[in-house]
Write a structure and sequence with these properties.
With 258 residues, the protein is α/β, with parallel strands linked by helices. 40% of the residues lie in helices and 23% in strands.
């Protein structure tokens, strides 16, 4: 009987031990999931079994985190999180900055913003934070003038000067590369540009500056900030090895922010 109980205890200990170090992180495929896959071996060596759950939209990762389906997510910047969480009354917390994905203006029809014609259509992200970010990019490059370029949630109604009478078409961020041929130009988030084979430093006709406040972040449920496995994840991502990987693989389309 003692042998049976001892064997059962050993089995339970091993079973719970196998799950205790599992960390599920929801992430956009590029570059977020790629960065997480890169640090998997380091986390494994520190007793953390990282499970990357790829999510291609901007809504599911925060809802899944709030519902406890994942332990953290990695796909967004703080202005987006703040707006999303406030609208849905979610208690989510930022634990680390990782990188910046400079926003870019791309076109299959013109090679410069100077070539845009009166009435041309420019597609921008439809979510409030990235839509405002797109308009700020155009403001900073003299294409339009915003009433308050520090307003991260600016909309078309905040444009006070639009010399070329450009028309802005809000499109869900993941779909922007797909509509690129149907519009004069499109402002695309770097992760979706990379997935579509576009590189910010090579293909964009306008690129966000390094002063961008839109660092991508690791997010957890409020109260989980000090979780040991989360802290190990942050430590694994904030290394010179990861910085080198980012610089070599993405060639300016992704910039370390740690």
């Amino acid at each position: 009987m003692k042998k049976i109980l001892l064997g059962l205890s050993t089995f339970l200990a091993l079973s719970f031990g196998a799950f205790a170090g599992t960390l599920k992180v929801g992430a956009s495929p590029v570059p977020h999931a790629e960065l997480l896959d890169f640090v998997k071996p380091d986390l494994k060596a520190n007793g953390v079994d990282l499970k990357v759950v790829e999510m291609s939209d901007y809504v599911t990762p925060n809802l899944a985190l709030a519902d406890g389906e994942i332990d953290a997510n990695f796909f967004q910047h703080k202005p987006y999180l703040d707006k999303f969480a406030a609208e849905r009354n979610l208690k989510l917390s930022v634990v680390a900055n990782t990188h910046v994905e400079p926003l870019g203006l791309y076109s299959k029809k013109v090679k410069s913003v100077n070539d845009l014609k009166k009435g041309d259509v420019v597609a921008i992200p439809s979510d409030p934070s990235n839509g405002g970010r797109a308009l700020i990019l155009l403001h900073n490059n003299g294409v339009i003038t915003l009433k308050d370029p520090t307003n991260l949630y600016a909309t078309e109604f905040d444009i006070v000067k639009n010399p070329k009478n450009l028309k802005f078409k809000p499109v869900e961020a993941p779909q922007l590369p797909r509509v690129l041929r149907d519009v004069s130009a499109a402002v695309i988030n770097s992760n979706y540009a990379l997935e579509a084979g576009l590189n910010t430093s090579k293909d964009a006709i306008l690129v966000e500056g390094k002063e961008s406040p839109y660092a991508n972040i690791i997010v957890v449920k409020a109260g989980s900030e000090k979780n040991e496995d989360i802290q190990k994840l942050i430590k694994a991502l904030h290394t010179e090895k990861v910085k080198k990987f980012i610089n070599e693989k993405y060639n300016g389309a992704v910039v370390p922010a740690f």
